[in-house]
Design brief:
Number of strands: 6
Distance between the termini: 28 Å
Shape: globular
Largest sheet: 6 strands, mixed, barrel
Protein name: Expansin-like EG45 domain-containing protein
Order of helices and strands: HEEHEEEHE
Keywords: Secreted, Signal
InterPro entries: EGC1/2, Expansin/allergen_DPBB_dom, RlpA-like_DPBB, RlpA-like_sf
Strand content: 25-35%
Number of helices: 3
Pfam family, one: DPBB_1
Organism: Deinandra increscens subsp. villosa
Strand order of the largest sheet: 1-5-2-4-3-6
Length: 122
């Protein structure tokens, strides 16, 4: 049993060491998208900000995203320990965040009333 706990702890620490900090917002209209046009890609999706976009090279990349804190007066927006896995399907030029999550993805990790949250993603 100690081995399993130790392995889980090491995996968590490795994931956190690879995480990149950023911010996330959310959006509601998923098609058309810059990567897939009018083809729906589900609801656990995200749009990449200009620094990540790289002329669309990021299309289809999967990220795990975790809320780490508030960026505004909404107290404690994060749902403790929750993570969401999203697929990059769109570009969000001039976005206020690093990732613009679908409303469903955002709501899986934080209270949507917050609007903008601090995140770690990997």
């Amino acid at each position: 049993m100690k081995s399993i706990v130790c392995i889980a702890l090491v995996c968590s620490l490795v994931s956190m060491a690879r995480a990149t900090p950023g911010t996330a917002t959310f959006y509601r209209q998923y098609t058309p998208s810059a990567c897939y046009g009018n083809t729906p890609e589900g609801v656990m999706i995200a749009a990449a900000s200009d620094p990540l976009w790289n002329n669309g090279a990021i299309c289809g990349k999967m990220f795990t995203v975790k809320c780490t804190g508030a960026t505004n007066p909404v107290p404690h927006p994060c749902y403790d320990g929750k993570e969401v896995r999203v697929k990059i399907v769109d570009h969000c030029p001039g976005c206020g965040g690093t990732l613009d999550l679908s409303q469903e993805a955002f709501a899986a990790i934080a209270n949507p009333v917050a609007g903008v949250i601090k995140i770690d993603y990997w």
